[in-house]
Write a structure and sequence with these properties.
Number of strands of chain A: 15
Shape of chain A: globular
Number of helices of chain A: 18
Distance between the termini of chain A: 62 Å
Subunit structure (chains A, B): Tetramer of two alpha and two beta chains.
Helix content of chain A: 40-55%
Family (chains A, B): Belongs to the TrpB family.
CATH topology of one domain in chain A: Rossmann fold
Pathway (chains A, B): Amino-acid biosynthesis; L-tryptophan biosynthesis; L-tryptophan from chorismate: step 5/5
GO molecular function, one term (chains A, B): L-serine hydro-lyase (adding indole, L-tryptophan-forming) activity
Oligomer: homodimer
InterPro entries (chains A, B): Trp_synth_b-like, Trp_synth_beta/beta-like, TrpB-like_PALP, TrpB-like_PALP_sf
Largest interface: A-B, 48 and 48 residues
Chain lengths: 455, 455
Amino acid sequence: MTKIPYKTYLTEDEVPKQWYNMRADMKEQHDPFLNPETLEPLSTEDLYPIFCEELSKQEMDHTTRYVDIPEEVQEFYKMFRPSPLIRAYNLEKALGTPAKIYYKFEGNNTSGSHKLNSAAAMAYYAKNQGLTSVTTETGAGQWGTALSIACAHFGLDLTVFMVKTSYEQKPFRKSIIETYGAKIIPSPSITTEVGRAILEKNPKTGGSLGCAISEAVEQAIKQEQSRYVLGSVLNQVLLHQSVIGLECKTALEKLGEYPDIIVGCAGGGSNLGGLIAPFMQDKITGKKNPRVIAVEPASCPSLTRGKYAYDFCDTGRITPLAKMYTLGSDFMPSPNHAGGLRYHGMSPILSKLYNDGYIEAISAEQTTVFDAAVKFAKLEQILPAPESSHAIYGAVKEALRCKETGEQKTILFGLTGTGYFDMAAYNQYNNKTMNDYIPTDEDLQRGFDSLPKVD
Amino acid sequence: MTKIPYKTYLTEDEVPKQWYNMRADMKEQHDPFLNPETLEPLSTEDLYPIFCEELSKQEMDHTTRYVDIPEEVQEFYKMFRPSPLIRAYNLEKALGTPAKIYYKFEGNNTSGSHKLNSAAAMAYYAKNQGLTSVTTETGAGQWGTALSIACAHFGLDLTVFMVKTSYEQKPFRKSIIETYGAKIIPSPSITTEVGRAILEKNPKTGGSLGCAISEAVEQAIKQEQSRYVLGSVLNQVLLHQSVIGLECKTALEKLGEYPDIIVGCAGGGSNLGGLIAPFMQDKITGKKNPRVIAVEPASCPSLTRGKYAYDFCDTGRITPLAKMYTLGSDFMPSPNHAGGLRYHGMSPILSKLYNDGYIEAISAEQTTVFDAAVKFAKLEQILPAPESSHAIYGAVKEALRCKETGEQKTILFGLTGTGYFDMAAYNQYNNKTMNDYIPTDEDLQRGFDSLPKVD
């Protein structure tokens, strides 16, 4: 009945063998990472105590356009990639839109999200350097799960600091991460100095990604054969996640399609940065001009209400400084269910692109996002993660605009993951006990007051 | 690095457009369903008060070899089919077996299992007949979720009676089923006569699939525009589920493979019957001779320790009688986590094939099955459902036998679903608080004593 299939899979051979580094095509680079004490730009070697060497190099490399994916990582990818590009026929029909809606679905692996793309790379490089363990933080739990799967595969010990709010909302994330052999600690915790300091200041805090990062970094630095890994924000993460966009572009080419509009949810930027990578190449080089829309939660609006400034990547103020859109490392986001988007900052690459006008951004309130999620679930059968549902909201908004104007645009969005571990959130939505939290200007000011003085 | 890909997907056009009815090739049919009062064979029309007409016809039809899949169901299938056939390279390597292990993975849809194949068909036929609602039971919750998704799509009201043990073990199944707009009631409940009777006799019962079936049937019969649907055991279910085996066979043919051994978990028989269908055609007609192995829980061993006899399909003794391997409709299985396999009986088709020597059967204890599940998860990244893990256990056993004998056999097993809603079970396993329950001969005798006197 339909010419374009619902689902398009590449063959195993068509899965990218190289990642794409957007920075190699960016006309201007983001401002350098700074040492928070000296305010001097960091060298690659300065990162070695935190990240393993290969990842440190990737973090700083803005000239290599394509990076070979190690064979072991390619083999790992074969267990869950390619991911399908799906035509949302049922959603289109229900909306009555002339727009064509596609989504790249990254949820069909046990981490439930795109996070496994970068987890595989990081675990591989750490193992390859001879390390025995890594530490990390997790918000919604998808990153922690992804890393536990990758560490089980490559044979590394793992300690996960999970944001306390999410830990309590999602008790089964603990079980799954433990099943893959990792240790999981709710953050802030008393196991680290920075955790104890945060708890002393605010004993009832539900934590944040910023807190959990501080604890994970501290724990990694303390141990000889251990390093820290991070599932978003970083340049290396966007590099690994480019596999999403590269697969997507090849699949669309096979269908004779090119997106007019690309929509992704934005927390730290891992998915959005990966999804848009090869399309942004076209945009920067003037080959094509797709609109790119980031959708963030109204409760944690770093792009739409944040400042473009140097800030710490963590709440404990122990990481390097990055120039990014930020709400301030002291900003404590309300307990929104999209735990993966509760981060005060934003990828420096995406921040630069946003600042330079390549990306638009909107924000959405929690209940509005769940309206879109439940509608989508009933139409397309996939139960989306709260984070991913921000992208659904954005795509539906654009599709309805096409309905008004009669334009048959091609909309692509990233469906980053599934909501199987978010049922407490869906339960709240179903029971109509879900609330929206929007920070006041005073709330934001308190965050901005914590910005370091750099200039 | 590998010639045969990890994952083989058919194209959308290659997904079967017809189901295959094994009965058309069986040399002997199973004994007819009987009216429990008159002990007379049932006619198709006798089923109309319980099942919708088209499904009643499918239930009785043993001559039509191929049944067209309605276009609406084909379209629905496109949202989640084809499912991948996966080569378990990492499992093979870890076992050090010369055997080639393939698995058909049916877990990549929101029901988390193969159940959506039959749910789509049943919801479609019910809607097409002009019904407004259906009722059903669910054990593990996969069938209830599948049917809620299908009913949301085709526009039917749904009431799900969920086995109380599972309902309590898996609180989030309720949330997901409600998200798709269905009503869910723990069984036995006070909403039906049969539920009240069961509770009066045994107030502390955790319920069983047999109880929940009684309640769902009673509720369906009471309402004019409602019918009952069932996710396993029935001939119609095996017909719909044949899509698994048909896809599988085509994919294997593309790879130049044919299975020497086929392994599936067995509760009511929905997955096993679907997986083996086209291979059993080869076996019955003498074209090929694969070994077929059913794996059931030691706690509910209908094939390995049951009787081949006429029995009720439910605990409340309101359904027709079916000739099948059964533990007796009064047999109350222990609270094993493989809720989908806690059924006293077995598909009449599979029972007949087992009795006639076409199928072998083994049973496995719960902790042994979880040993296999966790090993598999760490190697293949997919967290399997407890039910599916029975098949993993069986496949690993055969692969290790090949290691002993040095034979390079091709083993195919059905990975029916994911364990994302079974984390309480994994948690028990991780904490080493999981128990095995094996019924004593006296336990079984109590079940057998409840068998109706037919001859």
